[in-house]
Write a structure and sequence with these properties.
With 496 residues, the chain is α+β, with helices and mostly antiparallel strands. It contains 15 helices and 7 strands. Helix 2 runs antiparallel to helix 3, helix 4 runs antiparallel to helix 5 and helix 8 packs antiparallel against helix 9. The longest helix is centred in the middle third of the chain and has 38 residues. The radius of gyration is 30 Å and the shape is globular.
Length: 496
């Protein structure tokens, strides 16, 4: 253990600064050449990638404008979904390479395999029961079986490449959702060009917009992202909840997989089509049709995610509970770390007292406490690494406590009831005061609750008006704001 410095040494020692963060997550990259599953992934991506590029080249050659617009619209859909899904894991974000790998599997591998198998089975169904039956029921009988299988295989391959990244049920949801998102993006582009653009002699752009509405606005909230997310949850439940009997884990995993297949079947089936989509259905018809078929499943998935989140919060609280006695974390901080909103509120509360630097230190303290909580439940950490996490938390707490509070000027006794009138413009700007060397917070109004901006030390200012302890100042570039007039340094006082 490091000895405490002598008083003389302490005086010469540099300020206490938190140590670099310990990499508690020990995250695994997608690139794992020692894993056979990685080479299977790479081979299938290479094969599917050629098919994908050929298909996109065909679409772009047919209409470059429509293809570019389709890419832009699908990006506007995919990027927010990607970010929201990644944020669902409250305590340990997944490696970006694996997230991207899941998306690529869905968009390149699963679409290629499913398209090949679906086409073959559609032909078989047509020969067995006739073209009319296949046209009405073919998509419901083939796509749910083979598309859900090829997407689920993507989650399984990601698990085989980086099984240590599957810590709880939510991890399976995240990877499954991103596989489904990749599949949906590529499939939607296929449908834009195969079913909407140029249909009925309409314009290409009009057909693309119609396809985007039907496939993304109407169907996006209910389809591939959720179907694969729920089957991914089943896989993650089976491999992570080792406290549950194996037969029960298997039953739940199979049940969730079949739920995704079943809901896909219901979505593709012609049920409700005659009632709501006959003839030329309008936007309201499409929205009602989708809500009836998809909304119950969306509620079910939200419920499952909530259960998984509560389980995650419980193990996190239980992991940090022994740290209360040591002062590594307080009961209030454990509650604050429970969700993103309470973490943000805690940082903003510190920002009001300690300024922007205090807010950044609070964010680092929260990150370190989450790191320790995750490390305490596994991830291959030994006691030495956990001790380093504790030391880092103590250093951050000390650094935050040593940060001086932001001095808030006292409001004037007489309240200002009318807007402050700016003084007449002077012939030229003449500084009268300097910001103190340590800097100075400023406000846009003489109100402590308004947002704060930190002014740099020794910045020349001109005092325009005083109200109680407040001083309205301006800078050479025309900026003006309110500061604590008591802390300004007069220009003549700073001379010499």
């Amino acid at each position: 253990m490091t000895q405490s410095p002598t008083p003389a040494a302490a005086a010469a020692a540099p300020p206490l600064v938190a140590a670099p963060p310990v990499d508690w997550t020990e995250q695994v990259s997608l690139f794992q050449p020692r894993q056979a599953a990685f080479w299977l992934y790479a081979l299938l991506v290479a094969i599917g990638g050629l098919w994908f590029l050929e298909m996109q080249a065909t679409f772009a050659d047919r209409s470059a404008t429509a293809w570019i617009l389709g890419v832009v619209l699908l990006a506007l859909y995919a990027v927010p979904v990607f970010l929201v899904v990644n944020m669902l894991d409250l305590f340990e974000r997944e490696p970006r390479s694996l997230l991207l790998g899941a998306f690529v599997w869905g968009g390149v591998v699963a679409t290629f395999l499913a398209a090949t198998i679906n086409t073959a089975w559609s032909e078989i169904i047509q020969k067995l029961v006739g073209a009319e039956f296949e046209r009405e029921w073919g998509a419901a009988l083939t796509a749910p079986v083979f598309e859900e299988l090829t997407k689920f295989l993507g989650v399984l391959v990601i698990f085989l490449i980086a099984r240590h990244e599957f810590d709880d049920t939510l991890d399976g949801f995240v990877y499954g959702a991103l596989v489904g998102l990749g599949f949906a993006v590529v499939e939607n582009m296929y449908y834009f060009f195969g079913h909407f653009i140029g249909a009925g002699g309409g314009s290409e752009i009009g057909g693309l917009i119609e396809g985007f509405f039907v496939r993304v606005i109407v169907g996006g909230p209910y389809t591939h992202v959720l179907w694969t997310a729920i089957s991914g949850m089943g896989l993650a439940y089976f491999v992570t909840r080792l406290d549950v009997p194996r037969d029960r884990r298997l039953l739940i995993a199979v049940g969730l997989y079949l739920a995704g297949v079943g809901l896909h079947f219901l979505w593709n089936s012609p049920i409700l089509n005659d009632a709501l989509l006959r003839g030329d259905p309008g936007p309201i018809n499409w929205l009602i049709w989708a809500a009836i078929k998809g909304l119950p499943f969306l509620v079910f998935v939200a419920f499952m995610v909530r259960l998984a989140t509560r389980h995650q919060q419980r193990w996190f609280r239980d992991a940090l509970a022994p740290e209360l006695a040591a002062g590594t974390v307080t009961a209030e901080e454990i509650e604050q770390l429970d969700d993103l909103r309470s973490r943000r509120a805690a940082r903003k509360a510190v920002a009001l007292r300690k300024g922007p630097l205090g807010e950044r230190l609070m964010a680092r303290l929260q990150h370190a406490q989450i790191a320790l909580g995750v490390a305490l439940v596994g991830k291959g950490h030994g006691e030495a690494e956990r001790a380093a996490d504790r030391e880092r938390i103590a250093a951050l707490r000390t650094e935050l406590a040593a940060l001086p509070d932001v001095v808030v000027p006292v409001a004037p006794a007489v309240q200002v009831t009318a807007p402050v009138t700016s003084p007449a413009a002077a012939a030229r700007w003449i500084p009268t005061h300097l910001v103190p060397p340590e800097g100075l917070p400023s406000w846009d109004q003489p109100d402590p609750a308004r947002p704060v901006t930190q002014l740099a030390g020794n910045l020349p200012l001109a005092v325009v008006q005083r109200v109680g302890d407040w001083a309205r100042v301006s800078a050479s570039n025309g900026w003006s704001g309110w500061v604590d007039g008591r802390r300004l340094v007069a220009m003549n006082a700073s001379a010499g």
